[in-house]
Design a protein that fits this description.
Helix content: 40-55%
Number of domains: 2
Structural class: alpha/beta
Order of helices and strands: EHEHEHEHEHEEHEHHHHHH
Oligomer: single chain
Strand order of the largest sheet: 3-2-1-4-5-6-7-8
Distance between the termini: 35 Å
Number of strands: 8
Length: about 270
């Protein structure tokens, strides 16, 4: 955590709050966290909740911090980067979670050899179960990746990839929670259709998905092997699996990831 130094969040949305909460829970000092958010109401809310400090503008935030997290919508990222540029120098690290904004496009806003790490987190970071991928810019190395990794480990897990792989990460884990929510909803609907109450069906569906994921994580076994252990000969599960195969569940999910990846590439060219 010490490698992060004084950290500033450019934007105070849900993802920024997830990181702030995770850092404090991991023992990071609230006094070393700053945020600038144009909504005074939101800024006051974050200060009251976490005891962090507020900056007067983006330039002041950059000046007072060692590590900066760009947590704004990609549509306004370039305008915000221009505001940051007056105080940003090579002694600072910028971690960007602005979707579709390449490290090269970020670096072009700054003089010299700016240290930039780009990341794609996902929304389960809000409950400390995020999945993130990070990649270095041209002037960042192991030290910068270690600093960025410490931030994302505070709210989940992190992997290092090449920047050309970030679109695929977006299609898989960035958009992935939506696929899982749909699966949970459909699983619960099936239970309701067969006579369970909505409350019971949803509780069982959520815990089933959570438990199955944890089993894959903790055993390290391939999901196919774990699935085979549930499929008794002539039993209920293998009968259900035949329906899923006939209806193309796996192919549909694979195409969903591909479609989201293609869209991410399109947005990155905009």
């Amino acid at each position: 955590m010490n490698s992060i130094g004084r950290i500033g969040f450019v934007g105070g949305g849900n993802m920024a709050e997830a990181f702030i909460k995770g850092l404090i829970q991991a023992g990071f000092s609230a006094s070393a966290i700053q945020v600038f958010e144009p909504s005074q109401k939101r800024l006051d809310e974050l200060r009251a909740l976490y005891g962090i400090r507020a900056a007067t503008d983006n330039a002041a935030l950059v000046e007072g911090c060692d590590t900066l997290v760009l947590a704004v919508k990609p549509q306004i990222a370039h305008a915000v980067l221009e505001e940051m540029a007056v105080a940003f120098d090579e002694s600072k690290l910028l971690i960007s979670i602005a979707a579709g904004v390449s490290t090269l496009r970020i670096e072009e806003h700054f003089d010299g050899a700016p240290k930039v790490v780009r990341a794609m987190p996902n929304t389960p970071a809000l409950v400390g179960e995020g999945a993130a991928a990070i990649c270095p810019g041209r002037f960042s190395g192991e030290a910068e990746l270690e600093t960025a990794g410490a931030l994302f480990k505070a709210v989940g897990s992190v992997v290092v990839v090449g920047e050309e792989q970030l679109d695929a990460v977006t299609g898989l884990s960035g958009s992935g929670p939506a696929y899982v929510y749909t699966f949970i909803e459909a699983l619960a609907d099936g239970g309701v259709q067969q006579g369970l109450t909505r409350e019971v069906a949803l509780k069982l569906a959520v815990q089933t998905v959570l438990g199955a994921a944890r089993l894959v994580q903790q055993t390290g076994e391939h999901p196919a092997l774990l699935r085979d252990k549930v499929c008794s000969p002539g039993g209920t599960t293998i009968t259900a699996m035949r329906v899923l195969e006939e209806r193309g569940l796996r192919a549909t999910l694979m195409e969903a990831v591909c479609s989201a990846t293609r869209r991410s590439r399109e947005l990155g060219k905009g």
